Protein backbone atom coordinates (compact mmCIF):
# COMPACT_ATOMS: atom_id res chain seq x y z
CA UNK A 1 0.00 0.00 0.00
CA UNK A 2 1.30 3.42 -1.00
CA UNK A 3 0.04 6.85 0.00
CA UNK A 4 1.02 10.20 -1.53
CA UNK A 5 1.35 13.27 0.69
CA UNK A 6 0.85 16.56 -1.16
CA UNK A 7 1.18 19.99 0.39
CA UNK A 8 1.81 23.66 -0.37
CA UNK A 9 0.42 23.76 -3.89
CA UNK A 10 -0.17 27.53 -3.66
CA UNK A 11 -2.30 27.66 -6.80
CA UNK A 12 0.32 26.14 -9.09
CA UNK A 13 -1.95 23.86 -11.08
CA UNK A 14 0.82 23.02 -13.56
CA UNK A 15 2.92 21.52 -10.77
CA UNK A 16 -0.10 19.77 -9.21
CA UNK A 17 -1.08 18.19 -12.51
CA UNK A 18 2.47 16.86 -12.99
CA UNK A 19 2.41 15.35 -9.50
CA UNK A 20 -0.97 13.72 -10.07
CA UNK A 21 0.33 12.21 -13.30
CA UNK A 22 3.31 10.79 -11.38
CA UNK A 23 0.99 9.43 -8.69
CA UNK A 24 -0.97 7.62 -11.39
CA UNK A 25 2.24 6.12 -12.81
CA UNK A 26 3.15 4.87 -9.32
CA UNK A 27 -0.28 3.18 -9.03
CA UNK A 28 -1.10 5.08 -5.85
CA UNK A 29 -4.78 5.16 -4.90
CA UNK A 30 -4.70 7.23 -1.69
CA UNK A 31 -3.65 10.87 -1.31
CA UNK A 32 -3.29 12.98 1.83
CA UNK A 33 -3.59 16.68 0.95
CA UNK A 34 -1.83 18.81 3.54
CA UNK A 35 -3.09 22.35 2.98
CA UNK A 36 -2.16 25.67 1.35
CA UNK A 37 -3.91 24.76 -1.88
CA UNK A 38 -4.29 28.34 -3.12
CA UNK A 39 -2.70 31.86 -3.23
CA UNK A 40 0.59 33.02 -4.80
CA UNK A 41 -0.10 31.69 -8.30
CA UNK A 42 -2.92 32.71 -10.69
CA UNK A 43 -6.15 30.93 -11.61
CA UNK A 44 -6.93 29.18 -8.29
CA UNK A 45 -10.09 27.78 -9.83
CA UNK A 46 -7.92 25.47 -11.98
CA UNK A 47 -6.17 24.09 -8.90
CA UNK A 48 -9.47 23.56 -7.11
CA UNK A 49 -10.86 21.74 -10.15
CA UNK A 50 -7.89 19.33 -10.06
CA UNK A 51 -8.39 18.76 -6.33
CA UNK A 52 -12.08 18.01 -6.87
CA UNK A 53 -11.19 15.56 -9.64
CA UNK A 54 -8.68 13.87 -7.34
CA UNK A 55 -11.37 13.62 -4.68
CA UNK A 56 -13.51 11.66 -7.11
CA UNK A 57 -10.70 9.50 -8.47
CA UNK A 58 -8.76 8.60 -5.30
CA UNK A 59 -9.27 7.93 -1.64
CA UNK A 60 -8.44 11.38 -0.27
CA UNK A 61 -7.93 13.14 3.03
CA UNK A 62 -7.78 16.95 3.30
CA UNK A 63 -6.57 19.26 6.05
CA UNK A 64 -6.76 23.04 6.00
CA UNK A 65 -3.67 25.23 5.65
CA UNK A 66 -3.10 28.77 6.84
CA UNK A 67 -3.79 30.14 3.33
CA UNK A 68 -7.27 28.66 3.42
CA UNK A 69 -7.70 30.29 6.83
CA UNK A 70 -6.75 33.65 5.29
CA UNK A 71 -9.55 33.27 2.76
CA UNK A 72 -12.08 32.35 5.46
CA UNK A 73 -11.01 35.23 7.69
CA UNK A 74 -11.41 37.70 4.83
CA UNK A 75 -14.82 36.25 4.03
CA UNK A 76 -15.86 36.78 7.65
CA UNK A 77 -14.33 40.28 7.78
CA UNK A 78 -14.10 41.84 4.29
CA UNK A 79 -13.01 45.17 5.82
CA UNK A 80 -9.60 43.84 6.85
CA UNK A 81 -7.65 46.20 4.60
CA UNK A 82 -6.91 43.91 1.66
CA UNK A 83 -6.24 45.94 -1.50
CA UNK A 84 -4.51 45.23 -4.77
CA UNK A 85 -0.76 45.70 -4.45
CA UNK A 86 2.36 43.88 -3.39
CA UNK A 87 1.32 42.94 0.16
CA UNK A 88 -2.30 41.80 -0.22
CA UNK A 89 -2.91 41.68 -3.97
CA UNK A 90 -2.26 37.95 -4.33
CA UNK A 91 -4.66 37.19 -1.49
CA UNK A 92 -7.39 39.48 -2.78
CA UNK A 93 -7.05 38.15 -6.35
CA UNK A 94 -7.35 34.59 -5.04
CA UNK A 95 -10.37 35.38 -2.87
CA UNK A 96 -12.20 36.99 -5.79
CA UNK A 97 -11.73 33.80 -7.83
CA UNK A 98 -13.27 31.55 -5.16
CA UNK A 99 -16.90 30.50 -4.86
CA UNK A 100 -19.05 30.10 -1.77
CA UNK A 101 -18.79 26.36 -2.34
CA UNK A 102 -14.98 26.58 -2.30
CA UNK A 103 -15.04 28.49 0.99
CA UNK A 104 -17.48 26.04 2.54
CA UNK A 105 -15.21 23.19 1.50
CA UNK A 106 -12.22 24.86 3.14
CA UNK A 107 -14.22 25.48 6.31
CA UNK A 108 -15.17 21.81 6.49
CA UNK A 109 -11.54 20.70 6.54
CA UNK A 110 -9.91 20.07 9.92
CA UNK A 111 -6.47 21.50 10.74
CA UNK A 112 -5.22 18.01 11.55
CA UNK A 113 -6.52 14.48 11.70
CA UNK A 114 -5.68 10.87 12.36
CA UNK A 115 -6.12 8.60 9.36
CA UNK A 116 -6.99 4.92 9.58
CA UNK A 117 -6.86 2.81 6.41
CA UNK A 118 -7.68 -0.88 6.34
CA UNK A 119 -4.59 -3.04 6.28
CA UNK A 120 -2.20 -0.45 7.70
CA UNK A 121 -1.32 1.32 10.92
CA UNK A 122 -2.95 4.70 11.41
CA UNK A 123 -1.00 7.93 10.91
CA UNK A 124 -1.50 11.64 11.47
CA UNK A 125 -1.62 14.54 9.01
CA UNK A 126 -1.48 18.29 9.45
CA UNK A 127 -0.32 21.44 7.69
CA UNK A 128 1.98 23.09 10.23
CA UNK A 129 1.79 21.01 13.40
CA UNK A 130 -0.89 19.07 15.24
CA UNK A 131 -1.49 22.19 17.37
CA UNK A 132 -1.76 24.86 14.67
CA UNK A 133 -1.50 25.11 10.90
CA UNK A 134 0.81 28.14 11.20
CA UNK A 135 3.68 26.47 13.06
CA UNK A 136 6.91 25.71 11.20
CA UNK A 137 7.72 22.20 12.42
CA UNK A 138 11.41 21.87 11.62
CA UNK A 139 14.39 20.15 13.27
CA UNK A 140 15.55 22.42 16.07
CA UNK A 141 12.22 24.24 16.47
CA UNK A 142 10.67 24.55 19.92
CA UNK A 143 8.08 21.80 19.30
CA UNK A 144 10.43 19.40 17.52
CA UNK A 145 11.53 17.32 20.52
CA UNK A 146 8.08 17.25 22.13
CA UNK A 147 6.08 16.41 18.99
CA UNK A 148 6.78 12.64 19.12
CA UNK A 149 5.46 12.54 22.70
CA UNK A 150 2.17 14.10 21.59
CA UNK A 151 1.78 11.85 18.54
CA UNK A 152 -0.83 9.11 18.82
CA UNK A 153 0.78 7.17 15.95
CA UNK A 154 4.28 6.41 14.67
CA UNK A 155 3.97 8.63 11.57
CA UNK A 156 3.21 12.33 11.09
CA UNK A 157 2.90 13.92 7.64
CA UNK A 158 3.24 17.71 7.66
CA UNK A 159 3.89 20.64 5.30
CA UNK A 160 4.02 24.48 5.62
CA UNK A 161 7.80 24.98 5.75
CA UNK A 162 8.37 24.11 2.07
CA UNK A 163 11.36 22.11 3.32
CA UNK A 164 11.36 18.42 2.41
CA UNK A 165 12.71 16.01 5.01
CA UNK A 166 12.35 12.57 6.54
CA UNK A 167 13.31 12.31 10.21
CA UNK A 168 13.05 9.51 12.72
CA UNK A 169 12.94 10.88 16.25
CA UNK A 170 12.33 8.86 19.40
CA UNK A 171 11.22 5.92 17.27
CA UNK A 172 8.64 7.91 15.29
CA UNK A 173 8.67 9.37 11.78
CA UNK A 174 8.04 12.99 10.88
CA UNK A 175 7.84 13.50 7.12
CA UNK A 176 7.52 16.70 5.11
CA UNK A 177 7.25 16.15 1.37
CA UNK A 178 8.15 19.77 0.57
CA UNK A 179 6.18 22.10 -1.67
CA UNK A 180 4.37 21.03 -4.81
CA UNK A 181 3.90 24.53 -6.19
CA UNK A 182 6.49 26.91 -4.73
CA UNK A 183 9.78 25.11 -4.15
CA UNK A 184 12.21 27.30 -2.18
CA UNK A 185 15.05 24.80 -1.87
CA UNK A 186 17.10 26.20 -4.78
CA UNK A 187 15.30 23.78 -7.09
CA UNK A 188 12.46 24.31 -9.56
CA UNK A 189 10.72 20.93 -9.51
CA UNK A 190 7.59 19.92 -7.60
CA UNK A 191 8.07 17.96 -4.38
CA UNK A 192 5.86 15.49 -2.55
CA UNK A 193 6.23 12.35 -0.44
CA UNK A 194 5.21 8.74 -0.86
CA UNK A 195 4.73 6.52 2.17
CA UNK A 196 4.55 2.77 1.65
CA UNK A 197 3.21 0.36 4.23
CA UNK A 198 5.24 -2.84 4.05
CA UNK A 199 6.08 -5.55 6.59
CA UNK A 200 4.07 -3.80 9.29
CA UNK A 201 5.83 -0.44 9.02
CA UNK A 202 5.71 2.80 7.06
CA UNK A 203 8.59 3.49 4.65
CA UNK A 204 8.76 7.15 3.49
CA UNK A 205 10.28 8.42 0.26
CA UNK A 206 10.69 11.92 -1.21
CA UNK A 207 9.65 12.44 -4.83
CA UNK A 208 10.72 15.22 -7.23
CA UNK A 209 8.75 15.92 -10.39
CA UNK A 210 9.68 18.41 -13.15
CA UNK A 211 6.87 20.47 -14.64
CA UNK A 212 6.32 23.22 -17.19
CA UNK A 213 7.55 26.26 -15.26
CA UNK A 214 7.59 28.40 -18.41
CA UNK A 215 3.84 27.96 -18.89
CA UNK A 216 3.24 28.57 -15.18
CA UNK A 217 5.13 31.87 -15.36
CA UNK A 218 3.45 32.88 -18.62
CA UNK A 219 0.06 32.59 -16.92
CA UNK A 220 1.05 35.31 -14.43
CA UNK A 221 0.90 37.78 -17.33
CA UNK A 222 -2.00 36.28 -19.30
CA UNK A 223 -4.29 36.16 -16.26
CA UNK A 224 -3.61 39.73 -15.16
CA UNK A 225 -2.36 38.41 -11.82
CA UNK A 226 0.91 40.33 -12.03
CA UNK A 227 -1.00 43.60 -12.33
CA UNK A 228 -2.94 42.84 -9.15
CA UNK A 229 -0.08 41.50 -6.99
CA UNK A 230 2.85 43.52 -8.40
CA UNK A 231 6.14 42.79 -6.59
CA UNK A 232 4.76 39.73 -4.79
CA UNK A 233 3.87 38.18 -8.15
CA UNK A 234 7.32 38.99 -9.52
CA UNK A 235 8.90 37.45 -6.42
CA UNK A 236 6.91 34.23 -6.84
CA UNK A 237 7.89 34.08 -10.52
CA UNK A 238 11.49 34.40 -9.32
CA UNK A 239 10.95 31.42 -7.05
CA UNK A 240 9.54 29.34 -9.90
CA UNK A 241 12.56 30.23 -12.04
CA UNK A 242 15.29 29.66 -9.45
CA UNK A 243 14.01 28.13 -6.20
CA UNK A 244 15.20 31.18 -4.26
CA UNK A 245 12.68 32.48 -1.71
CA UNK A 246 12.38 36.02 -3.13
CA UNK A 247 8.91 36.49 -1.64
CA UNK A 248 10.06 35.99 1.95
CA UNK A 249 13.13 38.16 1.34
CA UNK A 250 10.91 40.95 0.05
CA UNK A 251 8.40 40.68 2.89
CA UNK A 252 11.00 40.60 5.65
CA UNK A 253 12.97 43.50 4.17
CA UNK A 254 9.88 45.67 3.65
CA UNK A 255 8.71 44.98 7.21
CA UNK A 256 12.13 45.91 8.56
CA UNK A 257 12.21 49.11 6.51
CA UNK A 258 8.70 50.04 7.68
CA UNK A 259 9.74 49.56 11.30
CA UNK A 260 12.83 51.71 10.80
CA UNK A 261 10.77 54.45 9.10
CA UNK A 262 7.94 54.11 11.64
CA UNK A 263 5.25 54.10 8.94
CA UNK A 264 2.20 51.93 8.34
CA UNK A 265 1.06 53.28 4.98
CA UNK A 266 2.14 54.08 1.42
CA UNK A 267 4.57 51.17 1.33
CA UNK A 268 4.43 50.24 -2.36
CA UNK A 269 7.57 52.26 -3.07
CA UNK A 270 9.38 50.12 -0.46
CA UNK A 271 8.38 46.93 -2.27
CA UNK A 272 9.63 48.39 -5.55
CA UNK A 273 12.89 49.40 -3.91
CA UNK A 274 13.47 45.92 -2.52
CA UNK A 275 12.52 44.35 -5.87
CA UNK A 276 15.11 46.46 -7.67
CA UNK A 277 17.79 45.48 -5.17
CA UNK A 278 16.97 41.79 -5.75
CA UNK A 279 16.75 42.16 -9.53
CA UNK A 280 13.15 40.98 -9.88
Describe the structure.
The chain has 280 residues and is of the alpha/beta class. The chain folds into two domains: 2-209, Purple Acid Phosphatase, chain A, domain 2 (4-Layer Sandwich), CATH 3.60.21.10; 226-278, no CATH class. It has helices at 13-25, 44-57, 66-76, 89-96, 100-108, 147-150, 213-222, 225-242, 246-261, 268-278; strands at 2-6, 30-33, 59-62, 112-115, 123-126, 155-158, 165-169, 172-176, 190-198, 201-209. Strands 3-2-1-9-10 form a five-stranded mixed beta sheet. Strand 7 (165-169) and strand 8 form a beta hairpin. Helix 1 (13-25) packs parallel to helix 2 (44-57). The longest helix is centred in the C-terminal third of the chain and has 18 residues, at 225-242. The termini are far apart.
Which structural traits does this protein have?
19% strand, single chain, 10 strands, alpha/beta, 5-stranded mixed β-sheet, 2 domains, globular
What is the domain total for the residues? 2
What's the CATH topology name of the largest domain?
Purple Acid Phosphatase, chain A, domain 2
Rounded Rg: 19 Å
Along the chain, the helix and strand elements come as EHEHEHHHEEHEEEEEHHHH
Q: Mean pLDDT, rounded to whole units? A: 96
CATH architecture of the largest domain: 4-Layer Sandwich
Portion in beta strands: 15-25%
| Tally of individual helices | 10
Q: How far apart are the first and last residues' alpha carbons, in Å? A: 44 Å
Output the strand order for the largest sheet: 3-2-1-9-10
What is the number of E strands? 10
Net shape: globular
Classified by CATH, the class of the largest domain is: Alpha Beta
